[in-house]
Specification:
The structure is a single chain. Helix content is 28%, strand content 28%. By secondary structure, the protein is an alpha/beta fold. The chain folds into 2 domains: 32 residues, no CATH class; 84 residues, Vaccinia Virus protein VP39 (Rossmann fold, 3-Layer(aba) Sandwich). The strands form 2 sheets. The protein has a 4-stranded mixed beta sheet with strand order 3-4-6-5. β1, α1 and β2 form a beta-alpha-beta unit.
């Protein structure tokens, strides 16, 4: 199991949280930009909670980020199943993939969807 984010401070907090749950030796965390991310195996599951403009990233071009996310999934994660937590349907369209399943969930008070993508 692994987790990554571009922000080293987020990685530090994730490690602290894993230690509190006595899981630090079972999860590998690293800082990496999405544009550099490669699949660590031929198949697996990827879970992603990208910014969707409600709390984070309101001033960024998130449409470009979501397009990059879709490109990375399509090009580097063939054979994988990806789940993307999205609180913004318009941004989700920029991924450029058809979801196999959508499940409504709340992330705090924000209504979101888990979008499942089978990557071939």
């Amino acid at each position: 199991v692994g987790g990554c984010d571009r922000d080293p401070a987020i990685i530090h907090q994730a490690r602290v949280n894993a230690q509190r749950c006595d899981l630090a030796d079972q999860i590998n965390f690293w800082a990496e930009d999405l544009s550099d991310l490669e699949a660590p195996a031929d198949s697996g599951y990827l879970l992603c909670n990208p910014p969707y403009g409600q709390r984070l990233g309101a001033n960024e071009d998130l449409g470009t980020f979501y397009k990059l996310l879709g490109d990375v999934l399509k090009q580097r994660f063939k054979g994988w199943t990806a789940f993307v937590l999205s609180g913004n349907k318009e941004l989700s369209r920029h991924i450029g993939l058809k979801s196999a399943q959508r499940v409504a969930v709340y992330n705090g008070s924000l209504l979101c969807q888990w979008l499942k993508y089978e990557l071939y």
